Amino acid sequence: MSEKALTTYEKFLATLTPKQAKQFSKEQKEFFILEMVFAAQEFAYNPSGLIISNLEQEAESQEYGACRFDLGQKHIKFRVAKITPKKVGQFVTFWKRMGDGPIMPYDVNDHFDFLIVSVRKVDCLGQFIFPKNVLLQKGLLSKDGRGGKRAMRVYSVWDITESLQAKKTQGWQLLYFVELQPVLDKVKIQKLFL
């Protein structure tokens, strides 16, 4: 996807209300989500020497672009955060379901190495690249069936946080944030995946 196409897509997304977004067909949503993955491939991973393989959409959390893929030898869970009109930051879910049972947080023993959360704001595109051990330290994963969370709010460099909790959360999250547009930090991407 070209830079011009990505910018047009980002501007389009920013104009949608939640009600309008729900009116999109499943195929249209899947197309936009795949565009986010392919944009990351074009603007971030390829220039950093990382190649996506084994891309699969997940059955649950499709409204957040839930998919999984490999980057080299690393196993990735991928989500696209949603812009919420009344709160700073963006919201994303991150959970699993066993059969027909209730939703539950991912566990430290689940098969993945990183959670990547893609965020956008008009002409800006970025990703949080959270290692599994950090998700555990921050209480987002369960361990031995205890703890964990099913969702979180993420705060990129473009977000101006005001509450103490949001500032604290943004502080640790930015250690794992990479801006893809307008400027790419290839060195940081490579370091995060080591």
Structure overview:
The protein has 194 residues and is an alpha+beta fold. It has one domain: 3-Layer(aba) Sandwich (Trna Endonuclease, Chain: A, domain 1). It has six helices and eleven strands. Strand 2 and strand 3 form a beta hairpin. 29% of the residues are buried.
Report the span from N to C terminus: 27 Å
The biggest beta sheet is recorded as: 6 strands, mixed
- Total helical segments: 6
Low-confidence stretches: 1-9
- CATH class categorisation: Alpha Beta
> What's the β-strand tally?
11
How are the strands of the largest sheet arranged? 1-2-3-8-9-11
Structural class by helix and strand composition: alpha+beta
Summarize the structure.
This protein is α+β, with helices and mostly antiparallel strands.
Identify the notable features of this structure and list them briefly.
6 helices; Trna Endonuclease, Chain: A, domain 1; six-stranded mixed β-sheet; three-stranded antiparallel β-sheet; disordered N terminus; globular; 194 residues; alpha+beta
